[in-house]
Amino acid sequence: MAFGDYPAEYNPKVHGPYDPARFYGKADVPFGQVKLGEIGAWLGRRNKTPNALAGAVSRAWWRWQHKYVFPKRAGIAPFFQLTVASMTFFYLINYTKLKHHRNYKYH
Fold it and tell me: What is the pLDDT of residue 70?
């Protein structure tokens, strides 16, 4: 699969119009229905290649956009979500510099 191509599992005759938020691979048990003893086998069945991880992030992005950004009456929730996510991200990448500015009690 090259950049910009459809996934190999996608068949327009079977699936209809392409939806970037949908996984076209073989269906598996959802994570919420996996029993504790089966977690290792479930994780072993996952595709852990960089392309698969990029596809999962892309599908999550498209699902988020369809739910919060694209509706006709979309509110300000996506802006607050992006603001909180960016604040958290920048706090985490600057944590090593910020931890030196803690206030300590010297008694």
Answer: 86
Helix (H) or strand (E) holding 92: helix 77-93
Q: Which single residue is written with the structure tokens 């498209």?
A: 62
> What ranges do the domains of the chain cover?
12-103
Q: What is the pLDDT of residue 107?
A: 61
Q: Dihedral of the CA atoms 50, 88, 86, 78 (nearest 10)?
A: 100
pLDDT for 98 beyond 90: no
Cα–Cα distance measured from residue 87 to residue 85, given in angstroms and rounded to the nearest whole number? 5
